[in-house]
């Protein structure tokens, strides 16, 4: 076992104890090499449980937050998932391992250079069920809608109506909302299309920029 594999294993074991990681999320996080999704100069910090800068004013989320969002989404094999904010591609990679080859992750990233970086890393690792597109994630991605699950990796001023419209009946969205004070919301659309939200708790994310987000 190499140095990174050992660090990754220790991180996942700690998350199992601290947040009660499920087996399917633990397996995905063990499989995905986070160190390959960060710039070379911070690779040694890849398995520390905090966000890291990835360029263009953006960060890769702390591993515990990636894990929590995966757990809250209640991802299933075969789900079609919309990710708003690809960043370096790490979060999408973890989700892709949970939904499996019969599932799909459509990831929208507004910064072309980050989208390109994410796409190249995912392709190099052979993750064929992730599609990275450049665009305004705050309005979703209509060509692939509707989605079983949606998650947003940046904080919105409010829950975007266009994302709700792209969520299937019976689907779920996880999204941080707020400016200086942010909370993570779990949004469920029931089989009749009715929306129910619950506040999971306080979080800290970069702002969601776009038509239904904050101004740049």
TrEMBL record:
InterPro entries: PCMT, SAM-dependent_MTases_sf. It is an enzyme of class 2 (transferase). Its EC number is 2.1.1.77. It is found in: Cytoplasm. One of its GO terms (biological process) is protein repair. GO terms for molecular function: protein-L-isoaspartate (D-aspartate) O-methyltransferase activity. The active site is at 61. It holds the Pfam family PCMT. Keywords: Cytoplasm, Methyltransferase, S-adenosyl-L-methionine, Transferase. GO terms for cellular component: cytoplasm. Its main location: cytoplasm. It catalyses: [protein]-L-isoaspartate + S-adenosyl-L-methionine = [protein]-L-isoaspartate alpha-methyl ester + S-adenosyl-L-homocysteine. Belongs to the methyltransferase superfamily. L-isoaspartyl/D-aspartyl protein methyltransferase family. Catalyzes the methyl esterification of L-isoaspartyl residues in peptides and proteins that result from spontaneous decomposition of normal L-aspartyl and L-asparaginyl residues. It plays a role in the repair and/or degradation of damaged proteins. This is Protein-L-isoaspartate O-methyltransferase. It comes from Geoglobus acetivorans.
């Amino acid at each position: 076992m190499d140095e990174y594999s050992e660090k990754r294993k220790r991180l996942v074991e700690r998350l199992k104890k601290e947040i009660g990681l499920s087996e399917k999320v633990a397996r995905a996080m063990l499989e995905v090499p986070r160190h390959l999704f960060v710039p070379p100069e911070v690779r040694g910090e890849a398995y520390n449980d905090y966000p890291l800068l990835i360029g263009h004013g953006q960060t890769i989320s702390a591993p515990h937050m990636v894990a929590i969002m995966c757990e809250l989404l209640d991802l299933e094999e075969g789900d079609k998932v919309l990710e708003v904010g690809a960043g370096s591609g790490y979060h999408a990679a973890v989700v892709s391992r949970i939904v499996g080859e019969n599932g799909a992750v459509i990831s929208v990233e507004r910064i072309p250079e980050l989208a390109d970086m994410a796409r190249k890393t995912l392709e190099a690792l052979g993750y064929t069920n992730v599609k990275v597109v450049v665009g305004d994630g705050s309005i979703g991605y209509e060509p692939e809608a509707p989605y079983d699950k949606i998650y947003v990796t940046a904080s919105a001023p409010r829950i975007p109506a266009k994302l709700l419209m792209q969520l299937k009946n019976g689907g779920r969205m996880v999204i941080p909302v707020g400016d200086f004070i942010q909370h993570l919301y779990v949004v469920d659309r029931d089989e009749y299309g009715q929306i129910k939200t619950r506040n999971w708790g306080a979080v800290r994310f970069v702002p969601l920029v776009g038509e239904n987000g904050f101004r740049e």
